[in-house]
Amino acid sequence: MQVTIPEFYIALVLSEGGEPSPAEYENLRLATCKHLLERLSAAYSNIGKVDLKFLATEFGTKKPDPKFQVFVEAEATISCSGTQPKAQDILETLLGTFDRDFLLRSVRLLEGSPFASAVEVQARRLKRPTAGGSVKAPAFYMAFVCSRKPSVNPSSQEKERFLQLTQEEAIRQLRKQYDTDFDELSLSIVKTEINESAGKPEPQYNLFVQFEATAKFSQNTPSPNELFQGLGRLVNAEYLQGVQRVGDSFMTLTTMVLRLCIFTDGPEPEEDEAEDGEGAGGGGDGEEEPDVVNVRLEFFVALVVRTLSTMPEESELEMFDGCITKFFTRVLKRAFRGRFLGLEIVDKDPEFEKGCPLPRFNMLHQYQVNLQFYDPAPGEFKILSKITQGNVGPLFDAIKKLESDVWRQSAEATMGRAVEKPPTDVAFGGSIFEEKKEVEPVVEPEPEPKAAPPPPKKEPEIPEKPVEKTPVRKSPSPPKKKPTPPKKKPTPPKKKAVVPKAPPPKPVGPQIVSVRSYDIFSAYQVRDKQMDNLKVEPTAGDYDALVDATKRFYVNHLKTEYGSKFHHMALSVRNVPLWGAGKPDHWYNVYIDWDIEVSFVVAPDEDAPTRWELTKTLVSAGCNQYLRSYVRGLEGTAFAHTSAVFTKQVAV
Questions:
Q1: Is the pLDDT of residue 237 over 50?
Q2: Domains of the chain, first to last
Q3: pLDDT tens digits, residue range 471-511?
Q4: What is the rounded CA–CA span in Å between residue 355 and residue 141?
Q5: What is the largest CA-CA distance in the chain?
Q6: Cβ of 248: how many Cβ atoms within 10 Å?
C-alpha cells in the first residue's frame, strides 16, 4: 500500500561552494531518502520504504528567502503495511525531520560537494499559486462589555470612526498574512445594538456590532473561513485602545469578542418548521450552524505578593479574576482559532497563606471555568495544556499592570492544574495514633487472660463430641491441660515486641547526599535584533554561554530554597539542543533537555530532598527572572533577544 505525500520544498543555506552538479543533487536525494526512512520508521512502525523524487532544483534564486542558495521541490511516496496513515499526518512528521540532525548526519557527510558546508535547512509544504478573485467572509460580529451601559446607539460619527479604525487594522493584518496576494478589503457595518438586544452571544455583552467583509486577492484566494480567521487577528491591545478613543459609546469597554454569526435574525420560524430544521426567514443556512459545546476545567494561579498580610479585598479579587478571564480568553482564541467561543469563571476559591505549590507562594487562586467551543470541542487535556503549559511571563506582566497596589507588589507567578487535596495519614481513613491506641491495650492487661472465659467457651464444645463417642477417654485430659492459665501468662515476648527497637546508629557528622532530578526541559523563543524569529541556529559558543547562565540561575535558586543545606550542582545538556523542532509548541525554536544532579549537606537528624521534591523546586523557579536577568543578559549571543522561556518536567 502506497501513500503519496503532498509536494514540499527543501531549502539550504550554504556557507561556501558554488552550484552543485546533478550528481551532487542525486547524492543529496539518496542521503535524504535514507534519513527520511530512518526517522519515519521510528514514528510509524508499518512504513517499509520511502521513494523520494526531486521535481526541480534551483540555485541562487533566493527562494523562499534571500539567505537560501539551494531550493529543491520534492515529492515522496511512502510504502506501508497494515493501517494506512493519513498523508497530511505523514507530511507533518516528514517536515519535522529536516532539523539539525539532518544537517549533521546526512548533508554535511557529503564530502567534496557544496552541501558539506550547509548551515541551515528549511522544509515546508509547497503551495502552488492559485487564481485570484473576490471572497466574502461569513457574517461576523463584535460584542463588547462596557462598564457603563450605553444609553443610546453609537452615533453616525462614532460608527464612521470605528469602521475606519477597524478597516485599517484589518488591512494591516491581512497584508501581514497574505503579503502581495492581498489587494483590497471592503468592510461595512450591518447594524448595532445595545443593552438587552446586544446580549446575543452571552447576556453580559451590552454593545453589539455586526459586519460584512469582502476581500480581493491577486492570487491564492483564501476560503471564506480562512478570510474570517485572518480578520480575527485584528483584535489586539493596540486596536482595543484605539476603539476606546472612538467615542463615549466605546470609552468604557472592558471585554471584547469577535465571532461568527451563528444566530438568526428576523421572524421566528413556526414550531413545526423549526422541528423539521427548515426555518423561515433565517437566510437558508440554519442546517450548517455548528453546535456549541461546554467544557468545564479547573486550574490554579499562585502568586508571591510582597507586603501582603491579609486576604485582599473583594474589589481587588474581582479585578484579578477579570484579568485572568481576559488573559486566558486571548490565549485560547489564539490556540483554537475559529473554534473557541468564550470563557466564564463559574467557581473560584482564593486562599491566603496557603503555601501552595511552594511555601513562598502566599496567594492561591483556584478556578473552575466553563469554556464554549464549536462542536467538536478539543480534548480536556489539550485545552489544559494550552492554559497551564504556556509561558507565565505574559500573565505575570498582565497582573503587574493592574491598577492595584496589591497586585503591583507581585514578585512571582506560576500556574498549573487543580491543586490536589493532601492524602490522608493512613489508607482507609483514621490516623496513625489511633492505630497505636488499638494495639497497646491488647498488650498491657495481663489479668484478663487469667479469667476463665476460655474454659467455658471450650467446655461446651468438648461434651458435644463425646456424646457420640467415649466420654471416659476425653473428659480427663482436655479440661486439665487446656485451661491452664500459667502457660498463657508468659507475655514477656509480647511486651518486648511492643518496645521499639533501637534505631540503627546515625552518622556522627553531616553527610553529602547526591540527588538526580527527573528529566527537565527548557524551550526558548529566540529572536533577532528586529524581533523576528531567529533564522540561523545559535553557535556552540552561544549554547555554552546559555548552559553557564542556566547553572548560575539554578544555583542561586537552590541556595535560596535550601540555604546551607545546598552543596553543589552539576548541570549539562542531555543529548544535543534541538533547533527548529517546535517543541513543545511551534513558536519555540530551541529545545534543551537538562541533566541535573544536586548534592546536599545532610545532618544526622535530617533527610535530603527526594527526587520529586528537587524536580518540583527546579521547575517552579521563576522563568521571568531567568529570562530577564540571565538569558537576555548574554550579550553578544543569539540568546540576548529571547522573547519567551518555558520550563517543565519531560513527560514520561
A1: yes
A2: 2-125 (3.30.300), 131-264 (3.30.70), 290-417 (3.30.70), 511-649 (no CATH)
A3: 445 445 555 555 555 555 555 555 444 445 555 555 555 77
A4: 44
A5: 121
A6: 14
